[in-house]
Structure formats: structure tokens, C-alpha cells
Amino acid sequence: MAFFLISRVFPKGLTQVLMYVTQPKFVVAVVVLLYHGNQILLLRHSYRPRYPWGLVTGWVKPKESPEAAALREVWEEIGIRVGDLHCFYMEVLGRHHLEIGFWANVDGQNTSHPSPDGEILESSWFSVDQLPGGLLPAQIPIILQAQTHRQREFS
Predict the structure, then answer these.
(1) 89 within 8 A of 146, measured Cβ to Cβ
(2) How far apart are CA 32 and CA 74, in angstroms?
(3) Does residue 20 belong to any structural domain of this protein?
(4) In this model, does residue 150 exceed pLDDT 60?
């Protein structure tokens, strides 16, 4: 109601600035699991010394769909092009953070190279039953959830 009244008094541009400044900001992130058979691709990140291993992740840019962000992040981080993405997970983390999870199958165990910006040191394929030490703990439930979703998809 307040912005309706303000919009009647102030110019449109000022009303939009007031709305932007007073409303909570929200960020959207994507997490992507890549499968080859029953193995998943994990990345060793340079900026997380305690838990270096993890999934492909990244922020959704303004005017970018979550699917496009997922495809872009996979390409930027490991240089792999993927086809069909399957959304399996959406969760609000904290008050201002939405995370959306996707999984995709890849043809063959693509070898990837470290990212040119130094963010990714290496990548490797792991069985879900034998995940490496140093895996970011918060990503283990996400991996298990993707497994369940993927198994339902193929049954």
C-alpha cells in the first residue's frame, strides 16, 4: 500500500529507486552434478583449502535463466558442454539466497583442464560410494538428493 501511495506523489524513477533501496536483495545460485555412468565429476577449487573438492557452482547473472547459468558455469569452470539439464533441487538458504540444483549426463568421461582464472585446479570422476576426503560437507546431501532424483527418472 505504501508504494502505491508513494507512486502517486513521486516521479516513477524516484519511486523505483525507493523500492530498490528498501526491498531485500535476493541472490540465486546454481549447483550442477555431471554424471558419466554412476560417477560424478568433482572439482578441486583453489579458494577452499579446507574443503577443496566440490560440485560446479555459480551465481545467476541478471537477466539470465538458472538453466543458462548452469550451462555457462560448467563451460567456464571445466570446458564441458552439456545437453539436457534436469532440475532436482531448490532451496532457500538463509533469508536472501536461493540455490537451484541440476544434473546432466555427459557422453564419455570428458577430460577437463584447470580453469584459466585459477579457480579450478583439477577435476576428477568419483563413484558416489567413494567420494573424496575434502568434499564440501554441505554438498553431500545435494549429491544424495540428485542420486535419488536420477534413479527415479530412470526407473
Answers:
(1) yes
(2) 8
(3) no
(4) yes
